[in-house]
Amino acid sequence: MEAELPIIQGGMGVGISWEGLAGSVARAGAVGVVSAVGTGYRYPGLVKRDRLGRPLGSKNTHHGEALKRIVREAKRIAGGRGAVGVNVLAAITDYGRVVRDAVEAGADLIISGAGLPLSLPEYAEGSDAALVPIVSSARALNLICRTWKRRYGRLPDAVILEGPLSGGHQGFKYEDCFKPENRLENLLPQVLEAARSWGNLPVIVAGGVWSYEEIKRFIEMGAAGVQVATRFIATEECDAPLVYKELMLELEPDDIVLLKSPVGYPLRVVRTPFVERLLNGENGWQGCASNCVVPCNRGEEAKKVGFCIADRLGLAWLGDYEEGLFISGANGWRLRKQGIIPVERLLRMLTGKEKDPTL
Ligand SMILES: Cc1cc2nc3c(=O)[nH]c(=O)nc-3n(C[C@H](O)[C@H](O)[C@H](O)COP(=O)(O)O)c2cc1C
Question: What does the angle CA 151 – CA 155 – CA 159 come to, to the nearest 5 degrees?
């Protein structure tokens, strides 16, 4: 599979990259990615919910039929151009079932990170979807390749190297996110070397990649392409509610912070009223309805960190500024000068065909 543009729009859960964004990105010749987490929020009529309106259990939270509808609609919007992938977080409960849902939905590729997707080929068996793990080190890539080769006799079709400026979960400990050796450009040479040793796997870089000049620089260093997420939040076609997009246009660098997440990794979010209260010691956990991710242990970790990630990302998708949790990459504050623009214009900026007002 080869996309016209070497740009993947990163999967954004809950509901930030569904059919509208992924379909429009693919239609413009790049790779659009649907997020498979929390799809129960997209079609509430299909799912069982509790009295607070939260999807019940992981079957209703990461809902199979909802995902299939989203992917089919994204492909319809794409009209046969580009490619439509699905991002499945490796830490979710029902991971195998959701990967199979994605395959049945017709995903062209499956991207999987936030944990090591060591069993991904088993769940995607029989499909010709490209399998693309996300890693943050050469060590993780080597482990995945060794395991896949031994167990399944295959290797990843490409790999995404995600550095510590990305939105959402970080594959690093809190203090390691700020170390110079973990900057994307410093991680890339080792990962390229590992990828070469496994037969020239294409390496795609992610995490804070912002402009055409940066994309060019990473490709000159040997990357096969880039994955960009935060910039796509401020597009007309993005599936986020308007409050989310407008919030992104008002940020200062200090408004973007790292929190402890129930998934066990640092999580980069916007400092909103809820985050402010959390940082002041308030606990906003309201019991576990979704059983959404394995490491949370049915709410045990959520109770410790003070929030349920499924509930809070769900509330953000519903447009609740006060109570929701709004993910952003470290460069999110730069969106102010971008404004809310069509996907096609953003891709023209990212390919050097139009002046970029954020620079
Ligand atoms: C709002 C938002 C939600 C995200 N959700 C997910 C997710 O569900 N799974 C995942 O693997 N990555 C997720 N990410 C990470 C992106 O896919 C991407 O790799 C990363 O943000 C790239 O960095 P950038 O945002 O600086 O471009 C999310 C990022 C954002 C901004």
Answer: 130
Counting from 1 in the atom list of ligand 1, the atom nearest the Cα of 328 is: 31
Ligand 1 pocket, residue 166 CB under 6 Å:
yes
Which domains, and CATH codes, for the chain? 7-238+334-350 (3.20.20.70), 247-317 (no CATH)
Q: In this structure, which long-range contacts are made by residues 251-259, counting pairs with CB atoms below 8 Å and at least 24 apart in sequence?
A: 251/328, 251/332, 251/333, 251/335, 251/336, 252/333, 253/330, 253/333, 255/333, 256/328, 256/329, 256/330, 256/332, 256/333, 258/170, 258/174, 258/177, 259/305
Q: For residue 145, give the nearest of 72, 216, 88, 197 by alpha carbon.
A: 197
The protein residue with its alpha carbon nearest to ligand 1, atom 30, reads 167
Alpha-carbon gap, residue 302 to 293, rounded angstroms: 10
Q: Can you give the pLDDT of all 359 residues of the chain as single tens digits?
A: 789 999 999 999 999 999 999 999 999 999 999 999 999 999 999 999 999 999 999 999 999 999 999 999 999 999 999 999 999 999 999 999 999 999 999 999 999 999 999 999 999 999 999 999 999 999 999 999 999 999 999 999 999 999 999 999 999 999 999 999 999 999 999 999 999 999 999 999 999 999 999 999 999 999 999 999 999 999 999 999 999 999 999 999 999 999 999 999 999 999 999 999 999 999 999 999 999 999 999 999 999 999 999 999 999 999 999 999 999 999 999 999 999 999 999 999 999 999 999 99
Question: How far is ligand 1, taken at its centre, from the CA of residue 356, in Å?
Answer: 22
* CA 168 to ligand 1 centroid distance, Å: 5
Give, using CA atoms, the residue closest to atom 15 of ligand 1: 167
Q: Which of 230, 238, 245 to mutate to test the pocket of ligand 1 (most atoms within 8 A of CB)?
A: 230
Q: Ligand 1: does its nearest atom lie under 6 Å from the Cβ of 230?
A: yes
Residue 261, ligand 1, Cβ within 6 A:
no
Best probe residue, ligand 1, of 12, 132, 333 (max atoms within 8 Å of C-beta): 12
Minimum CA distance residue for ligand 1 atom 4? 12
Taking the complete model, does pTM exceed 0.85, yes or no? yes
